[in-house]
Specification:
A hairpin with a 4-residue loop joins strand 10 and strand 11. Helices cover 14% and strands 44% of the residues. It is mostly beta strands. The protein has one domain: Beta Barrel (OB fold (Dihydrolipoamide Acetyltransferase, E2P)), CATH 2.40.50. The strands form 2 sheets. It has a 6-stranded mixed beta sheet. Strands 3-6-7-5-4 form a 5-stranded mixed beta sheet.
Length: 161
């Protein structure tokens, strides 16, 4: 069903940014995304948690950058020209999530979302569901549950003077 046909039926649509980490495609609510930037020089912070790649200076603001490959326990690969940092607000903190590539902005009817399955490499607590597209599946990320409170606090500490 096309977006126009869905709009006519009055069905609620999710607007998502889709991105790729390894061979999987993920979706994140577009309203949560502040911006998407190309990979830039990261400053490593000594003794920071392993999932934190480093920090960047984004228009005068220090932002921790989290590797979703590390967060999802996937093998590390060097950044390339497709690598992006998705800047989002999570529980009042601005964080960057490093992804392999950003694919597209899309609309998905809520009826095309199934509950998260009980299997897979990504822990279920931060998967909102699985979106069924015509020929592929999209793992919907619950960005507020992606990191524990302690991990969020570790990120906030990096931005304090």
């Amino acid at each position: 069903m096309s977006a126009t046909a869905i709009a006519r039926t009055g069905e609620e649509l999710l607007q998502l940014v889709s991105f790729r980490v390894e061979d999987e495609e993920f979706g994140l609510e577009i309203l949560r995304v502040q911006e998407i930037i190309r990979i830039q020089q990261l400053t490593r912070v000594p003794a920071s948690p392993a999932f934190i790649e480093g920090v960047i200076n984004l228009r005068g603001r220090v932002i921790p950058v989290i590797s979703l490959r590390r967060r999802f326990d996937l093998p590390q690969v060097p950044a390339d020209k497709q690598t992006r940092i998705v800047v989002v607000e999570v529980n009042g903190s601005v964080l960057g999530f490093m992804v392999d590539a950003v694919s597209e902005v899309l609309r998905l009817p809520t009826s095309a979302v199934e509950p998260a399955p009980r299997i897979g490499r990504v822990e279920r607590e931060y998967v909102r569901g699985v979106g069924k597209l015509e020929n592929r599946l999209l793992i919907l990320v619950d960005i507020d549950r992606l990191m524990s409170e302690a991990e969020e606090e570790a990120c906030v500490e990096l931005t304090q003077p």
